[in-house]
Design a protein that fits this description.
35% helix; disordered N terminus; alpha/beta; eight-stranded mixed beta sheet; 16% strand; Rossmann fold; 10 helices
Length: 310
């Protein structure tokens, strides 16, 4: 059989197979099944996993919570809360390592008893509501999770006793929420969170927020800083940090630091020399002082703090 005819027969025989091969769908960064982690990995001491129902998304959302030692016995005491937001691609179990650092400090009597909450904020929501309404991360955090925590646990349900922080997307998300809803929090700690001018018309459309200019302006942390500056200056303490070996985040972190400075907003800022984008390294390098900023904020807000008795 001539070689050209043989090749033609082989090609003809495999074409139907190639045509029948199913197309691979592009995976979405955010999906409907991301809001509760299962199975739940082993968690640090005093950290437990729970879910609550989000009415805005009509689905359960997972969160981990750290309750301080003697919480079950000290039934007459209420405690301040730190909300810690995970980074992109993470979930409610991603950043619970910081709870073990908090527990160590509380158990030694160096730190006051504090509740710490780790919500599932979606894979890349930046803790904002999506333009198409599918992912309501901001609504879930502000209007659903915080009220749920205050109703379920013995918190001090007051802005002054409520801290927010996060790493990477969590740092950006905590900044987004604190700039837009400063009446909800007493302090903000942005850990390597790249803050962007999402209202920048030269970068439209925004793949997540959409292309409505008004919506983009309402979700721009820089514009919300200006809009709410008087309240933020009077009521919100801010700390920002980033590693110098983290170029993808350092540029925008410095830009937000500059915006705070130019607006006259007092804040704490530091860079960790040689640190890449690694939260555990950032914490481990300053374990003894890691929670100092949040605790100092609580003290300045005259929040009652309780320590373990020696």
């Amino acid at each position: 059989m001539p070689q050209r005819l043989l090749a033609l027969l082989i090609l003809t025989s495999i074409l139907p197979v190639l045509a029948a091969k199913p197309k691979i769908k592009a995976t979405q960064t955010n999906t409907d099944d991301m809001w509760v982690t299962s199975p739940v990995p082993e968690l640090p001491t005093n950290v437990t996993h729970h879910t609550f129902h989000s009415a805005s998304m009509n689905r359960d959302v997972g969160y981990c919570i750290y309750l301080p030692p003697t919480y079950d016995q000290d039934t007459d005491q209420r405690f301040p809360v730190i909300y810690h937001l995970h980074g992109a691609g993470g979930n409610e179990t991603r950043s619970v390592y910081s709870a073990s650092v908090l527990h160590e400090g509380i158990s030694s009597g160096k730190l006051p008893k504090i509740i710490m909450v780790f919500p599932n904020g979606g894979r890349s929501t930046m803790y904002q509501d999506s333009g198409d309404g599918r992912f309501m991360a901001e609504t879930m955090m502000i209007h659903e999770l915080i009220p749920h925590i205050d109703a379920t646990y013995r918190t001090l349900a007051d802005r002054k006793a409520r801290c927010i922080e996060g790493f990477s997307m969590g740092g950006r998300g905590s900044t987004n929420l604190a700039m837009k809803h400063p009446q909800r929090f007493g302090s903000l700690f942005n850990q390597s969170g790249n803050v962007y001018h999402v209202s920048d018309a030269s970068k439209l459309p925004n793949a997540y927020l959409g292309d409505d200019p008004e919506r983009l302006r309402a979700n721009d942390a820089f514009l919300n800083l200006k809009k709410n500056l008087d309240f933020i200056k009077a009521n919100l303490r801010i700390q920002v940090a980033c590693g110098t070996a983290d170029p993808e985040h350092l540029v925008s972190v410095r830009e937000f630091h500059q915006a705070l400075t130019e607006s006259g907003m007092p804040h704490s800022y530091f860079e960790v020399d040689g640190l890449d984008h690694n939260q555990k390294k950032m914490i481990d390098g300053r374990k003894a002082t890691w929670f100092d900023f949040q605790i100092e904020s609580l003290k300045l807000n005259q929040v009652p703090l309780h320590y373990l008795q020696p």
